[in-house]
Amino acid sequence: MDLRLAGKVAVVTGASKGIGLAVTRALLGEGVSVVAAARNLTDDLSQLTTQGKVHPVQVDLGTPEGPARLIDEAVVAYGGLDILVNNVGALHPRTDGFLSLTDDDWLWALTINFLAAVRTTRAALPHLLERDSGTIVSTCSVNAVLPDPLVIDYSAAKAALLNFSKSLSKEVGPRGVRVNTVSPGPVSTQLWLGEDGVAATVARASGGESADVAKRAAAEGVTGRFTRPDEVADLIVLLASERAGNVTGSDFVIDGGLITTL
Ligand SMILES: NC(=O)c1ccc[n+]([C@@H]2O[C@H](COP(=O)([O-])OP(=O)(O)OC[C@H]3O[C@@H](n4cnc5c(N)ncnc54)[C@H](OP(=O)(O)O)[C@@H]3O)[C@@H](O)[C@H]2O)c1
């Protein structure tokens, strides 16, 4: 299927690894020019710069000024913006429970999982409105509707992101901008499987093995496995394309059947 994305310009946040890197790679494959944001320029992201139009931006999106600087740089680099992928996000498993969380912990989770997307959207929207078919896709999470005390702050932040995206879709839809979210269950990235990821942190706290923690999480879905980053990326790229031209205000779950409710 031709997604008719060639020649478009996209900003992808959290693009140095995991889902954001996969989205960057997939957009490049469709002939999109991508401004790829993260704090670090990884070897994987550097390699992509040899394969197409990728403009990496090293920026801390948890700062008040980072998102606006990113969008300014994107517009200077490629002259406008068609697609925003709000993908940046992070979590710390709260193995000591709710009472161990300080205000700073809450502010950190709400900033990187919610406010970063709000600020990036605020900076990007005027440019998206200039195009015929601007679109925003944000990486949310099943935890937006599957609250979990282990990630209590992250769950609340993702619920806010889901709600924000739906509200915004109503305001900007009549002006030609579509807003959607993608909500993955466990995905095989550093967030889950890295040294300080969910599996290792839970294993350290419970005295088990991280591989067993990951295996149990995978078994909770009906497919029995984690989603791959490229599978999430394909869904995001389809939603960003005009093939999904009448899809807005929607959330798409990609969780291997983890959520059992209708
Ligand atoms: N993996 C999962 O199971 C899963 C499930 C549901 C939803 N999600 C969501 O999917 C998104 C991507 O997650 P992932 O699994 O791909 O995570 P990941 O592998 O940990 O990648 C996170 C990305 O965000 C960047 N980042 C983190 N903090 C940043 C900051 N302050 N400023 C700029 N960039 C920052 C990281 O790069 P630097 O460290 O270089 O800055 C990296 O590129 C997140 O929103 C996450 O909540 C993930």
Verbal overview:
- With 262 residues, the protein is of the alpha/beta class.
- The protein folds into 2 domains: 9-185 and 228-248, Rossmann fold (3-Layer(aba) Sandwich); 186-226, no CATH class.
- Helix content is 44%, strand content 14%.
- It has helices spanning 18-29, 43-48, 66-78, 103-130, 152-172, 190-193, 198-206, 210-219, 229-240; strands at residues 9-13, 33-38, 54-58, 83-86, 135-139, 178-184, 251-254.
- Strands 3-2-1-4-5-6-7 form a 7-stranded parallel β-sheet, sandwiched between helices.
- Helix 1 (18-29) links the parallel strand 1 and strand 2.
- Helix 4 (103-130) runs parallel beside helix 5 (152-172).
- It starts with 8 loop residues before the first strand and ends in an 8-residue tail after the last strand.
- The mean pLDDT is 97.
- Bound molecules: NADP nicotinamide-adenine-dinucleotide phosphate.
- NADP nicotinamide-adenine-dinucleotide phosphate binds at residues 14-20, 38-40, 59-62, 87-90, 112, 139, 141, 184, 186-187, 189-192.
